[in-house]
Specification:
By secondary structure, the chain is of the alpha/beta class. 50% of the residues lie in helices and 12% in strands. The structure holds coproporphyrinogen III (CP3).
């Protein structure tokens, strides 16, 4: 089996640098866009055969060393009683956002083995169909990012509702954070039991917080997830965007692998968390530029990783929908060739 991704997570030596891409399954692929003409995103997630097909699309055509389950961060909202939909061109829209302590009180806990059985079934089928070709990554959201969506009701640039809620109603906030932590830890455990071989926790919006707010309002709940999964036996990846200023705090919350965005050069970021593996950190827009420039930027990431064990090549955030598939294919091949030779 191709286990260079899992080996790198454990900081073991590898034959060449493993590669996977956040949002490797998605709109930049024609096959995905074709399927989306017939089914909504949530319909794909709810039908295991479709979610399996979408997960495998990039594995079949790009030289990636890991598959990532096709689902979404917000999927657990539905069984909690937080109905939502994805609106074309805008993103998620939560029908009744949380704005008060009583809104937190009306949220339901759930058993992922029942309410999200379709996701677990997707994982079981994927493991069979992958035949150990590459490992399968499962994922979930960190409490801060999930709470931010639940409170804002959709995308935000300031997180004004979320922060106002944190500051004015800290008890309700911590109740919400603890609830997300327990549910996501249980959901991740169920994904691992179903066959997920690594777990990535996305704290996509943690970068919106000051260090002291991260430590007070986000870190304890993220840490609860990592603590509860510490005996799970699979590598845990912890990823935040724009989180350079809180990198050490994010690492303190947990994770065997820390996902880095592109804002800080990889070697400088790694020096700050040298006891962990790292994942990253090419700017996703580098794939939109000329190929030679993209290769040069990838080479710079690899040079800064310096062949040390514990580097997984990835982008600093997800592949952008306007990216060409050929660029993604060329980049994966390039990383493998460059590190095999070196
Ligand atoms: O290939 C993969 O990475 C696996 C699938 C995956 C999706 N969402 C599918 C998806 C993963 C890992 C996610 C995680 C996710 N979802 C995150 C964390 C990663 C990140 O980007 O920081 C977040 C914040 C979400 C919430 C979300 N889902 C938003 C804000 C949006 C709309 C914005 C956008 O990109 O359109 C989505 C929709 C979504 N989830 C798409 C995909 C492929 C867009 C495609 C579509 O509409 O069909």
């Amino acid at each position: 089996m191709n286990d260079r991704f899992l080996r790198a997570c454990r900081r073991e030596p590898v034959d060449c640098t493993p590669v996977w891409f956040m949002r490797q399954a998605g709109r930049y692929m024609a096959d995905y866009r074709e399927l989306r003409k017939r089914y909504s995103l949530l319909e794909i997630v709810r039908q295991p055969e479709l979610a399996v097909a979408v997960t495998l699309q990039p594995v079949d055509v790009i030289d990636v060393d890991a598959a990532i389950l096709f689902s979404d961060l917000l999927v657990p909202f539905t069984p909690m009683g937080l109905d939502f939909e994805f609106i074309k061109g805008e993103g998620p829209s939560i029908h009744y956002p949380i704005r008060s302590a009583s809104d937190v009180g009306r949220l339901r806990t759930f058993d992922p083995r029942e309410s999200l059985a379709h996701v677990l079934e997707t994982i079981r089928i994927l493991r069979r169909e992958l035949h150990d070709r590459v490992p399968l990554i499962g994922f979930g959201g960190a409490p801060f990012t999930l709470a931010a969506y639940a409170i804002e009701g959709g995308p935000s640039t300031t997180y004004a509702h979320t922060k106002a809620f944190m500051y004015a109603q800290p008890e309700a906030w911590h109740k919400l954070g603890a609830m997300f932590a327990a549910l996501i830890a249980d959901y991740m455990r169920a994904q691992i039991d179903a066959g997920a071989q690594a777990i990535q926790i996305f704290d996509s919006w943690a970068g919106a917080l000051s260090r002291s707010d991260y430590r007070e309002f986000a870190l304890p709940h993220s840490r609860a997830i990592f603590d509860q999964l510490s005996d799970s036996g699979v590598p845990l990846i912890h990823f935040g965007v724009g989180a350079t200023a809180i990198l050490n705090d994010l690492a303190e919350a947990g994770g065997d692998v820390i996902g880095l965005d592109w804002r800080l050069p990889l070697d400088e970021a790694w020096a700050r968390i040298s006891d962990r593996a790292v994942q990253g950190n090419l700017d996703p827009t580098a794939l939109l530029g000329p190929r030679e420039r993209m290769f040069a930027a990838a080479d710079d990431v690899l040079r800064r990783a310096g062949g040390r064990p514990g580097h997984i090549f990835n982008l600093g955030h997800g592949i952008l929908p306007s990216t060409s598939l050929e660029q993604v294919q060329a980049l994966a091949k390039h990383v493998h060739a460059a590190t095999l030779a070196g």
